[in-house]
Amino acid sequence: MNESSKLENLFVEITNKCALKCRHCSSEASPSGQEHISINQLVALIDQAYQMGLKSFTISGGEPFLHPDIKELLKYLKKKDISTCIYTSGVIQEGNDLIPFPDRLVDFLRNGLVHNLIFSIQGADSLTHDNITGISGSQIITLESIAKVKKNLLPFEIHFVPMKLNYLEIPQVINLAEQLGANQVSLLRLVPQGRCLDSKEYLLLDRKTAEEFESYVKELTAQPQGISIRLGTPFNCVTESEKVCSASLNKLLISASGEVFPCEAFKFLKGLRNNIHNTELRMIWKNDILLNHLRNISLKDIKVCGDCPSIESCRGGCPGQRMLYNGDIAEGPEPYCKYILAT
């Protein structure tokens, strides 16, 4: 490992409890989720990461606002002057009721504690969204939370996971996000892991739908939009953006059970990873075999992809997808490879 490497971006799933039960959830979060990282463990984790160069802390779950100590966590991050983002469904469970953000929560967030809230909207049509979340009426609650956030001038974005059930609604979701006042829409790639495995034939884009999705993306990115649209490096095979994947370079993800992953795309390795509960984060960052493999591999080392004329632009696609489908990050191609789709 390059000794100058800094862990600048840390993503932490602080709980696997969630009022929803989304079909595609990689964390398999649910109302019955019992795992969470304690506030003492989170503070210790932040202190360790801070010494390693931490600049940004992204909180997810599950639903982060169901963690019993979320307010204490946010206060501590502010004290350390660390940029903080929260991924949320906007659906809060109080007893047997599902409600939007309570006014007391929004008032608390107004104290400069969060730099960005990122809401999940999985369909412009409420039936599509609710079908994916598994909870009837969930989109209405999410939209009510967004309205409260917007009214109080809190910055927020929308994220959307294209899948068979919703990819045709991408333009409508972007229009909805613009109407809601979101700063950005992010399209996040679905990985066949977690709960997605229970119905992947209904969720994962096949060759035909992947081609249609690629066409949508090219059309959207070719024209000026009223809102920023982000496709991260997992979509490199579609966008050929030449973006460098940051997994293990300056980013890590920690699950609610304490396992450490290069990023979200590697959560299919659940149960096989180093864990913060028995190994210091600095030692994992320095010595983990997979993390170092990701740091040291060159594009030319990727089998099949290395000699491809598009390797410098697509960069072999998503390394997590390469490992999932081929057993090794050093072996390509990955499923969205345009040469595979063309055959």
Task: Please supply descriptive tags for the structure shown above.
two-stranded antiparallel sheet; TIM Barrel; single chain; about 350 residues; 11 strands
Description:
Its cofactor is [4Fe-4S] cluster. InterPro entries: 4Fe4S-binding_SPASM_dom, Aldolase_TIM, Elp3/MiaA/NifB-like_rSAM, PqqE-like, Radical_SAM_PqqE_MftC-like, rSAM, rSAM_sf. By secondary structure, this protein is an alpha/beta fold. It has one domain (9-204, 244-296): Alpha-Beta Barrel (TIM Barrel). It contains 14 helices and eleven strands. The chain has helices at residues 39-51, 70-79, 103-109, 126-133, 138-151, 170-180, 200-203, 207-222, 236-239, 281-287, 289-296, 311-314, 319-326, 338-342; strands spanning 9-13, 56-60, 83-88, 92-94, 97-99, 116-120, 156-160, 184-187, 228-231, 251-254, 260-261. The strands form two sheets. A nine-stranded mixed beta sheet has the order 9-8-7-6-3-2-1-10-11, with helices on one face. The chain has a two-stranded antiparallel sheet with strand order 4-5.
Largest sheet report: 9 strands, mixed
- Rg on CA atoms, Å: 20 Å
Can you count the beta strands? 11
Alpha carbon gap, first and last residue: 39 Å
Please identify, by name, the CATH architecture.
Alpha-Beta Barrel
String of helices and strands: EHEHEEEHEHHEHEHHEHEEHHHHH
Mean pLDDT: 93
